[in-house]
Amino acid sequence: MKEKQMKKQSPLNVAMGAAFMMAMAAVGPGFLTQTANFTGKMGANFGFAILICIVVDVIVQLNIWRIIVVSGKRAQVLANEVLPGLGYLLTVLIVIGGFFFNIGNIGGAGLGLNVLFGISPENGALIAATVAIIIFLVKDAMRVVDRSVQFLAIIKVAILIYILAVTTVPYQAAVTHAFMPTHVDFYAIVTIVGGTVGGYISFSGGHRLLEGGVQGKDKIKYVNAGALTGIGVASTIRVMLFLAGLAVVLAGHTLDPTNPAASIFKVAAGQFGYKFFGLLLLAAGMTSTLGSTFTSISFLDYTDNQGAKKKYLRLRSWLIVAFIVCSTVIFYFVGNPAKILVLVGALNGLILPIALAILLIAATKKKIMGSYRHPRWLLYTGWFVVVFMAYAGVRAILTIQF
To answer: What superfamily does domain 3-399 belong to in CATH?
Structure first.
């Protein structure tokens, strides 16, 4: 992962790499389970939660990416400049959340291999972890990561297009309830926002841009292109999965609570659809493993000069290997932490207002941002999201049955 090689990429290519890293980090096994689970429980009303999620995504990503890129500093460094020690707290929150998600990501990839080839999920997880480590350790690794997540994104979209093609999609009910829901579930909103843009996911794109040498006020157009592309890709996949699930639910079928996402594909296309689900789960697990690993480890980088940076880059490969290996070992011996993933998704929704508030404060400090003035509409909408997600997060946590 050599810095000089990364700087040879054009800013637009780096921005697209950041876009897909963010989008595919969000579209992991937890994403599939959450979307299918809430579709089964809420039906068409879940469309409203998705709509709120997309609006929040746009506000959060445009704010965070822009502040990171203009300042040229990673989120944890910005947090320390806002208040000494705050960056270390943010690092702990992000890395722990990313680690627990990565257990599910590795497990999801292993389960995907189990569906496709019949090997045990544990052995499948070992294979997936090995592939992920190899991708990170090859020469010019981040370019390989970019191409990997883009290729896997195409696979995900193609599978969902097929599933939608063989089902009768209730578009009218979906659109009507998205704008006029008969029931609003705060837990659903917080969980899917947390799983789509909470925790490490909201920083993956901004940190990827810095990794590729994209920083400064003159690079804002690439921030906008990357953030909106990433949100568009992640939102498209979520909407497609929601529509497929809604078609199955409204046709009178009940989703299996132990594996609701698999139920959608099996009902829609039989055993062939179930194999497609395995491929989708494998792709989701791999892309999220790459995204969560890169972003979580990037929060350990506090270097401020080239000498320190070179030492950190030599250490980073070992940190990446340790992160993936530890996640895999826990899955191998403990099993799929489905309940933990749901809880961590909700907790990530609580981390979001804390992290976003820190960066919004940083955006107003001249000693951090220099002559740059953050757009007022982004500041105001950003603070609105902070308040809304804090309120919704507390409401959601109070409803959790432990």
So the answer is: Hydantoin permease (1.10.4160.10)
